[in-house]
Amino acid sequence: MIAAVGRDARPGRLARVLLVGALVVALLSGCGASGTASQLQARLLSLADLPAGWSDVAAGASPAKVTDTPCLRHAAASQKGWSYESAGFVEGTSIPSLGELLASGPRVQRAWDRFGAALAGCHSALLTVDGKKVEASVRRLAFATLGRGSSAYSWAFTLGGIRLGFDIVLFRTRRYDGYLSYADLGAPATATVEAFARAAVAKAQSGTTAPVPDGVSVASAPVRTAHTRLGAVGYRAIGNGPPLVLITGYGATIDSWPPQFIAALARDHRVIAIDNAGVGPSARLPAPLTIDAMADQTSALIETLGLRDPDVLGWSMGSMIAQALAVRHPDEVRRLVLCAAYPGDGTTVRPSRRQLDEFENGDAQEVLAALFPPGQAAAQNTYLLAVSSYPPAGSVSAGVLAAQRHAIDAWWGGTDAAGTRTATISAPTLVADGTLDRLDPLANSKALVKLIPGAELQLYPDAGHAFLFQDQASLLPRVEAFLG
Question: Residues near 258 by Cβ (< 8 Å), separated by ≥ 6?
Answer without folding.
Answer: 382, 383, 386, 387, 469, 472
